[in-house]
Write a structure and sequence with these properties.
The protein has 145 residues and is mainly α. The chain has helices at residues 18-46, 49-144.
């Protein structure tokens, strides 16, 4: 475990340790050089014969990926066609549903208009009967006097 070195001196201002940074950079670069040299040795050990094998593997992988891409494109085209058909079918169903709703609403409106007419006629008839009733009451009062 690394010990944490205080970055602040006693006055509270940052204090940078140049030795520590230098040592860290040197160790990083030396580790990097060791890794790179190990890779280079591994590549040299595999030799030139492996390039042809690697090339053939890359070609095989490339062909396999092209085949998968083509299959995916075909599946995408089929799915898009299904989606378009479904949207068209759904759209026509929606239109039919909207037409049915519109017709039922028109019927309700005409029924309500008819009810309003009947209500107006009933109000008129009711007022006429009230007036007639009032006249009859006056006639009865005169006759009873």
């Amino acid at each position: 475990m690394r010990e944490r070195v205080s970055r602040f001196n006693s006055s509270g201002s940052p204090e940078v340790s140049n030795d520590r940074i230098t040592n860290h950079n040197e160790s990083y670069f030396s580790r990097r050089e060791n890794i790179l040299s190990a890779r280079k040795k591994a590549e040299e050990e595999t030799g030139c014969g492996d390039y042809k094998k690697m090339y053939e593997e890359a070609l095989t992988t490339n062909e396999r990926l092209k085949s998968r891409l083509e299959t995916s494109k075909q599946e995408l085209a089929m799915i898009q066609a299904k989606l378009e058909r479904a949207q068209r079918d759904c759209g026509s169903n929606v239109l039919e549903t909207e037409k049915k709703e519109r017709l039922s609403l028109k019927k309700k409106i005409s029924d309500m208009e008819e009810q309003l007419k009947v209500k107006g006629e009933i109000k008129t008839e009711n007022q006429r009967l009230k007036d007639e009733n009032g006249a009859l009451i006056r006639v009865i009062r005169k006759l009873s006097k």
